[in-house]
Amino acid sequence: MKKAFDWLNQNKVQYEFHDYKKAGISKPVIEEWLKQLPLEQVINTKGLTWKKLSDEEKAFIKNKSKAIELMIAQPSMIKRPLVVMGKKIVLGFDAEKWINEVK
User: Fold this and answer.
1) Which terminal Cβ of the chain has fewer Cβ within 10 Å, N or C?
2) Cα within 13 Å of Cα(70), Cβ side
């Protein structure tokens, strides 16, 4: 996240940060993300939150509705940064991709 914030500030890109780990996230927002991104990419399967889940909960990744419920309940399992740039949703920090999106 720090690299993303630093890049945005250095490139004078105005942004609004929504900390879904603290403020939560809604089902409609996640559904919008999933129109552009595969569910398997949005869920951070390498993070501690994922590792703490039961096998039953991990199986939810195969069911979109249950996966969304799990992301709402455990927002730390959502990969970051997830950035809405206009109508495009970008997952992960990649300066080369970002520069093309903000210009």
Assistant:
1) C
2) 24
Q: Which segments of the chain are extended strands (E)?
A: 82-85, 88-91
The yes-or-no verdict on residue 94 having pLDDT over 70 is: yes
Question: How far from 75 is each of 13, 14, 49, 53, 98, CA to CA, in Å?
Answer: 25, 24, 9, 13, 24
State the CATH number of the domain containing residue 21: 3.40.30.10
Q: Which residue has the tokens 């945005």?
A: 8
Domain count, the chain: 1
Residue 103 has pLDDT above 80, yes or no: no
User: 26-61 burial string, b = 16+ CB within 10 Å, else e?
Assistant: eeebbeebbeebebeebbeeeeebbeebeeebeebb
Residues forming beta bridges with residue 90, ordered by sequence position: 83
